[in-house]
């Protein structure tokens, strides 16, 4: 059984650090592992005599840092690869296609609605569950788009972005002894929240194919077992851009139902799908509404990532459990933004226009990456594309990302940052981090002129 942590630029290699978290694993024969006390780490031989020992700060923060690959062997915490690449872009003047945030605001009408709300006094605590207006808008949106019958009074909870919705849900519904299954690669917040809950992270790899990254049904069924409490599904998927098919989601649903597990879906990119791809909420599948928590947010759909307005819906008893935790995290969420997002959710045109624009920008970047020598899996959702640097002679995506600003004046992030630490598991074969080691992620949620400049710069790779 693998005890590695998710890949990062700095991850713990000392085996003494490996018991700091319930580390992610792929499906194995289930065997309890006794917890062993760890000896206190000796000070490095070359430490300065006058330096005081680094204070030991106990607590769950170490578990979260280890689960996301950020805890160094000496107990310090490394910067995330995202922070490293953003700093590298600022230092070198490179175009930052690593972090996924828009470089233009969303529709003016939505901003104007928030301004009106501020001017009309919506500046104090709103209801902890969210304003009735926004909860109704979420329920109406789900009914209109997906045919889901959602009670806005008991089955909807407004959160401070999807990140809080995920954290509150995992903390409320999972704990020590439970397993939480996710796809791999995974958004780093998923791993951190699972670790903070004290649960064990089990992963199911997505496999690259010419038609996108796909699930192996047998691996899904092997990962979900009697200790599985939650199955967390992100579709459309960050970082791969995959939109899971109805057949793939049905495999997940069947596996969860067989062990009475709850499915938690991260659907923040639900409107950003392209070509003939269709986003299917797990809650819309037969028999799944009663065991699914659906999470989404306004940031990706309307290009207001800094507003941090998210929501979740599900069966009333599960929403009540999540609300109990949420109220002690942030209590409530930004008052003037809620009426603005309620107004936005009633309009289907803005998300359609954004998706159409992003499809054009996706094609521009993908064509440029192929021309530069990358191998590309064209995404059918999100605003990310995964490119393979192996044809350019780079087997290590981290090395490529660190050299790319100097080689081409562009910043990306390695896909291994979204995986557990590299290693080989005897039962499951190579881990996702090894299988995807040469791949890097670019975003195309930038202005078209910025992407054209990036494509021009990437052309320099042809001569390296």
UniProtKB/TrEMBL annotation:
Residues 14-42 have a biased composition (Low complexity). Its cofactor is pyridoxal 5'-phosphate. Residues 1-60 are annotated as: Disordered. Keywords: Aminotransferase, Pyridoxal phosphate, Transferase. Residues 94-420 form the Aminotransferase class I/classII large domain. It comes from the Bacteria. GO terms for cellular component: cytoplasm. Gene3D superfamilies: Aspartate Aminotransferase, domain 1 (3.90.1150.10), Type I PLP-dependent aspartate aminotransferase-like (Major domain) (3.40.640.10). One of its GO terms (molecular function) is kynurenine-oxoglutarate transaminase activity. The keyword Chaperone does not apply. Belongs to the class-I pyridoxal-phosphate-dependent aminotransferase family. NCBIfam families: PRK07777.1 (NF005855). This is Pyridoxal phosphate-dependent aminotransferase.
């Amino acid at each position: 059984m693998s005890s590695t942590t998710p890949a990062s630029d700095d991850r713990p290699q000392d085996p003494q650090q490996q018991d700091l978290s319930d580390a992610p694993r792929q499906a194995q024969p289930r065997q309890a592992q006794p917890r062993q006390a760890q000896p206190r780490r000796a000070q490095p031989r070359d430490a300065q005599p006058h330096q005081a020992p680094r204070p030991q700060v106990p607590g769950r923060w170490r578990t979260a840092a280890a689960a996301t690959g950020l805890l160094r062997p000496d107990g310090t915490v490394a910067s995330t690869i995202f922070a490293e690449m953003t700093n590298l872009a600022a230092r070198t003047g490179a175009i930052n296609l690593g972090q996924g945030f828009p470089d233009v605001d969303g529709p003016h009408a939505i901003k104007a609605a928030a301004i009106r709300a501020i001017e009309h006094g919506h500046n104090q605590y709103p209801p902890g569950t969210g304003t009735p207006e926004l909860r109704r808008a979420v329920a109406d949106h789900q009914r209109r788009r997906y045919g889901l019958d959602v009670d806005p009074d008991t089955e909807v909870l407004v959160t401070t972005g999807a990140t809080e919705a995920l954290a509150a849900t995992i903390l409320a519904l999972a704990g020590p002894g439970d397993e939480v299954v996710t796809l791999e690669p995974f958004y780093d917040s998923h791993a951190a929240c699972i670790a903070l809950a004290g649960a064990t992270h089990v992963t199911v790899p997505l496999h690259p194919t010419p038609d996108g990254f796909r699930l192996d049904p047998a691996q899904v069924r092997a990962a979900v077992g009697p200790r599985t409490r939650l199955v967390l599904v992100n579709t459309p998927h960050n970082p791969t851009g995959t939109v899971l098919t109805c057949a793939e989601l049905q495999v997940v649903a069947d596996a969860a139902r067989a062990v009475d597990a709850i499915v938690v879906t991260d659907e923040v990119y639900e409107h950003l799908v392209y070509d003939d791809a269709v986003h299917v909420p797990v809650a819309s599948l037969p028999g799944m509404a009663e065991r699914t928590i659906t999470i989404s947010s306004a940031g990706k759909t309307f290009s207001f990532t800094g507003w941090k307005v998210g929501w979740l819906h599900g069966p009333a008893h599960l929403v009540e459990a999540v609300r109990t935790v949420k109220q002690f995290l942030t209590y409530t969420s930004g008052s003037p933004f809620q009426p603005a997002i309620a107004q936005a959710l009633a309009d289907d045109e803005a998300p359609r226009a954004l998706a159409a624009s992003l499809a054009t920008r996706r094609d521009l970047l993908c064509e440029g990456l192929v021309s530069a020598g990358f191998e590309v899996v064209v995404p059918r959702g999100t605003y990310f594309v995964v490119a393979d640097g192996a044809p350019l002679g780079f087997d290590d995506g981290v090395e490529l990302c660190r050299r790319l600003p100097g080689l081409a004046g562009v910043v990306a992030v390695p896909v291994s940052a979204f995986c557990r630490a590299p290693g080989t598991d005897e039962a499951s074969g190579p881990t996702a981090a090894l299988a995807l080691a040469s791949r890097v992620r670019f975003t195309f949620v930038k202005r078209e002129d910025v992407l054209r400049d990036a494509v021009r710069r990437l052309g320099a790779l042809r001569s390296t």
